Amino acid sequence: MFEFKHISVADTASRLQQRTAVIADIRDEQSYAAGHIAGAWHLTSASLPAFMQQHDFATPVVVVCYHGNSSQGAAQYLAQQGFDEVYSMDGGMALWQQQHPVTTAND
What we know:
The chain contains 5 helices and 5 strands, in the order βαβαβαβαβα. It is α/β, with parallel strands linked by helices and 107 residues long. Strand 4, helix 4 and strand 5 form a beta-alpha-beta unit. The radius of gyration is 12 Å and the shape is globular.
C-alpha cells in the first residue's frame, strides 16, 4: 500500500540542508511567486509530468501547501504514482515562514 508520511518543518529544513529531499510546492502561482522554499518545484497539474520525469522515484519528496492540509492529498497521489518516500509538511508555508526564510520569483 502506498502511503505518505508527515514531516515537521524542522525535519524538512534538515533534509534540505543535507540535500536528501526535493520540495514540491502545490500552492497557487501568486503565493508561490510571493515566497517559497528555495529550490522548491512549483507542482501544478501542468508541471506534474515534467516533475515525474525529472525526479528519481527513490528521492524523498516533501509536499508543501498553505497550512499542511491540501498537501496530504497531493502527497498521497505522488505515493500512488510510485514515489518511494513522500511527506506532507505539517504546518505548511504558514509555519515555515515563521521559522525560515523564503525566496521569491525575483530572487
